[in-house]
Design brief:
Layout (H helix, E strand, L loop, with lengths): L1 E6 L1 H6 L9 E5 L8 E6 L1 H7 L12 E6 L3 E6 L4 H6 L14 E14 L3 E16 L2 E5 L4 E4 L5 E18 H4 L9 E2 L3 E2 L6 H20 L4 H19 L3 E2 L2 H24 L6 H8 L3 H12 L3 H19 L4 H7 L5 H12 L3 H6 L9 E5 L3 E6 L1 H10 L10
Parallel strand pairs: 1-2
Antiparallel strand pairs: 1-3, 2-4, 4-5, 6-10, 6-15, 7-8, 7-9, 7-10, 9-12, 11-13, 14-15
Length: 404
C-alpha cells in the first residue's frame, strides 16, 4: 500500500528530506498557506491514470501543481485570482456564503429574465410549476420534478399559476474542476430529469438532494466536509444517468465567445431600454450584420430582440410602481414606453390587468423569514435558514417511495 503526501506551500519550504520512493508528492502554491499534511492510501497505477498531462491553456494560470511519481507533471489550476474575479463579470455573480463552491436555497419566484452563470444548477420544484426557457426549448417543471441546467446556459424562469417555489442547488464549475478537470467539457442539454430517470433512479436522486440540502441548512460541526462529499456524489449520479457529450477546447472557446457577446447585448439593453433602442446600433458597435444579430437574439434569447426589450421595460415599470412616489404616466415614460397604450397593453399581456389595478395590489414586503428581491430582471423571495429547514421537511411528501 502506498501513500500520498499532500503538503501546502509552507510545508514544502520546510521539507528538506528526499521524496520517498513510491510516494506521490503535491507541490501546491498559495493560497494553500497553512501547514497541513494529509495522507491517503492509494494504488500508484490509479494515479498514473488519473493525473494525465493536460493542455495548460485549459486552466487559469493561478495555482501551480507538481506531481512526482517519479516524474514531474505541471498544470495550472483554476482559482480566485484577480483575473478570474474580473471574468465573473460576464455572468451573474453567485455568492457562496457558507461553503466555497456550493450554494443551496429555496426560492419563491415570479420571474427571472434571461441570464447565465458559470455554475451548474439543479432545481427541485416543491410547489406550483416552473417554466424554464433555455436552449431553444421550454420546459414545464411541475411539483415534485427536477431539472438540470448546464454551466453557461442562458435560461429564463417564470412561474406557472399563482406561485412557484423550488429548491436550488448551485455548484461552482471553477471549484469542482480543480479536482475533476474534465468537468467543463462535459455537456448536458437542459433536461427535465423525469424524462430520463426510472422511478427507482429518481428516488435515489431525490434522497441525495435531500441529504445534501439537510446537511447544508443544519450546519452541524464539520458540515462543510459532509456537503462536499454529498455534492460530489450527487454530481456523479447526474452525469452517470443523463446523456452527456464531450466538447473539445475549440467548442468551449466558441461557446465562451457567444456568451460574452450575449452578455454585451444584455448590458446594452440594460443601459438603453429607457430610450429608443435599435438592434442596428449594437450591430454597428459589434461590427456584425443586422440579420446575423437578429438570428443570434432569437437563438439565444428564444424571442426577438424587441420582445426582450419590452419585457425588460415591463419589469422595470413593475419595480417603479412598487417603489411608489411616481405617477403612472411618469413610470410609463421612464421605463421606455413611447405611448401609454403600449404600457397598458404590456400589463394586460403579462398579468391580465391594467397598471392601475396592479398599483392597487399590496406590494411584497420583507419579513424576518423572507427577503424580497425585486429588480427589472426578477421578483424572487428568499428564506432564512430556519424557514428553509421547514420547507425542506415538507419536501419529504414529494419523495418517491423507497419500494419503487
Amino acid at each position: 500500500m502506498d501513500f500520498i503526501s499532500i503538503l501546502s506551500a509552507n510545508c514544502i519550504k520546510k521539507r528538506t528530506n528526499p521524496i520517498p520512493a513510491g510516494t506521490i508528492y503535491f507541490d501546491l502554491s498559495p493560497p494553500y498557506n497553512k501547514s497541513q499534511i494529509m495522507y491517503f492510501p492509494c494504488k500508484p497505477l490509479f494515479f498514473r491514470r488519473f493525473f494525465q498531462i493536460r493542455t495548460p491553456s485549459l486552466f487559469y494560470p493561478s495555482h501551480h501543481l507538481q506531481v512526482w511519481f517519479p516524474l514531474a507533471v505541471s498544470w495550472d489550476f483554476p482559482g480566485s485570482d484577480e483575473n478570474s474575479k474580473m471574468k465573473r463579470n460576464e455572468y451573474e455573480i453567485i455568492h457562496y456564503p457558507h461553503i466555497n463552491g456550493i450554494n443551496i436555497f429555496f426560492n419563491t419566484l415570479d420571474y427571472r429574465t434571461p441570464h447565465m452563470h458559470s455554475e451548474l444548477e439543479l432545481l427541485w420544484v416543491t410547489e406550483g410549476a416552473l417554466q424554464v426557457t433555455c436552449g431553444g426549448r421550454s420546459l414545464c417543471v411541475p411539483t415534485g420534478s427536477l431539472a438540470f441546467l448546464n454551466s453557461g446556459t442562458i435560461h429564463e424562469f417564470r412561474k406557472q399559476g399563482d406561485a412557484c417555489t423550488f429548491l436550488c442547488i448551485q455548484c461552482s464549475l471553477k471549484y469542482f474542476r480543480s479536482f475533476y478537470p474534465r468537468l467543463p467539457y462535459l455537456h448536458v442539454e437542459p433536461v427535465l430529469l423525469d424524462e430520463h430517470l426510472t422511478e427507482k433512479e429518481k428516488a435515489k436522486l431525490c434522497r441525495s438532494v435531500y441529504a445534501l440540502a439537510k446537511a447544508y441548512f443544519l450546519r452541524q460541526e464539520h458540515f462543510e466536509l459532509s456537503c462536499l462529499s454529498k455534492a460530489c456524489q450527487l454530481l456523479y449520479r447526474l452525469y452517470s444517468l443523463l446523456p452527456v457529450s464531450l466538447i473539445d477546447e475549440g467548442q468551449a472557446l466558441e461557446n465562451a465567445r457567444q456568451n460574452a457577446r450575449l452578455q454585451r447585448l444584455l448590458t446594452f439593453v440594460d443601459k438603453n431600454y429607457m430610450h429608443k433602442i435599435r438592434l442596428s446600433d449594437f450591430a454597428e458597435a459589434e461590427g456584425l450584420s443586422l440579420s446575423y444579430l437578429s438570428r443570434f437574439c432569437k437563438s439565444m434569447l428564444n424571442q426577438p430582440f424587441q420582445s426582450y426589450v419590452n419585457t425588460v421595460r415591463f419589469y422595470a415599470a413593475c419595480q417603479e410602481i412598487n417603489a411608489g412616489g411616481k405617477r403612472l404616466l411618469d413610470v410609463c415614460l421612464d421605463s421606455g414606453f413611447s405611448d401609454y397604450r403600449y404600457f397598458s397593453a404590456a400589463f394586460r399581456e403579462h398579468l391580465g390587468m391594467t397598471p392601475e389595478e396592479y398599483r392597487r395590489q399590496t406590494a411584497p414586503a420583507d419579513s424576518p423569514e423572507i427577503h424580497i428581491h425585486q429588480s427589472m430582471h426578477s421578483l424572487e423571495r428568499f428564506y432564512s435558514r430556519e424557514r428553509c429547514l421547514d420547507l425542506l421537511r415538507q419536501t419529504k411528501a414529494l419523495m418517491p417511495s423507497r419500494s419503487n
